[in-house]
Design goal:
single chain; 6 helices; binds adenosine-5'-diphosphate; five-stranded parallel β-sheet
C-alpha cells in the first residue's frame, strides 16, 4: 500500500492541479492532498474554502482512478506532514524552468531531514501546463474568462470573491 502526498496552496485548485491528481493516482494506492495553510502567501481563499474546493473536485477523480484520495490541511513542516500521513512519496508538479530551482532546494533539504521519502515530479498535459493559480486570480480580477483554467464551481467562487 503506497501513499503519496501532493502538497500545495491550491489557492484555488486549477485544471493543472487536477491533471496532476489524476497522474499521481497512477503511481500510488492512496493519495493525500496536503492543503497548506500558507499564511505567508496571503491566500485569497481561507483554508476551509480551499479544502472544500479540492474535496469537491477530487471525488470524481478518485472514483475514475479507483484510488482513495484524502484531503489533509497542514501547517507543519512538509516532511513531518508526510510522516504523519504515512507517505513514502511526495508529489510535486513542474511547469516552467522557473519552478525548478525552488523545487531542487526543497528536495535537497527534505532529503537531509528524511532520506526515505522520495520526491517525484510530474508534468501536466500540454493544455494545462501554463495554468497558475496566481494568474487565474489576476484574470478574474480583471474580468477575463477563466472557464478553460478551473472547474465551474471554482470559477463561481472566484467571481464571487472579486465581486465584493
Ligand atoms: P505551492 O504554494 O506549493 O507552489 P500551488 O498550489 O501553487 O502551491 O502548487 C502546488 C503544486 O502544483 C506545485 O508543485 C506546483 O508546481 C504544481 N502546479 C501548479 N499548477 C500546475 C500546472 N499547471 N501544471 C503542473 N503543476 C502545477
Amino acid at each position: 500500500m503506497r501513499t503519496g502526498l501532493y502538497p500545495g496552496t491550491f489557492d484555488p485548485v486549477t485544471h493543472g492541479h487536477l491533471d496532476i491528481f489524476r497522474r499521481a493516482c497512477t503511481l500510488v494506492d492512496r493519495l493525500v492532498i496536503g492543503v497548506a495553510i500558507n499564511r505567508d502567501k496571503g491566500p485569497l481563499f481561507s483554508l476551509e474554502e480551499r479544502v472544500e474546493m479540492v474535496d469537491s473536485t477530487c471525488g470524481a477523480i478518485a472514483r475514475e482512478m479507483g484510488v482513495e484520495i484524502v484531503v489533509h490541511p497542514f501547517e507543519n513542516l512538509l516532511i513531518h506532514c508526510a510522516q504523519d500521513v504515512g507517505a513514502t512519496v511526495i508529489i510535486r508538479g513542474l511547469r516552467a524552468v522557473s519552478d525548478f530551482e525552488y523545487e531542487f532546494q526543497m528536495v535537497g533539504m527534505n532529503r537531509a531531514m528524511n532520506d526515505e521519502i522520495e520526491t517525484v515530479f510530474l508534468m501536466a498535459d500540454a493544455e494545462y501546463q501554463s495554468i497558475a493559480s496566481k494568474l487565474v486570480k489576476e484574470i478574474t480580477r480583471l474580468d477575463g474568462d477563466i472557464t478553460k483554467f478551473v472547474p465551474p464551481e471554482v470559477a463561481t467562487a472566484l467571481k464571487a470573491k472579486y465581486k465584493r
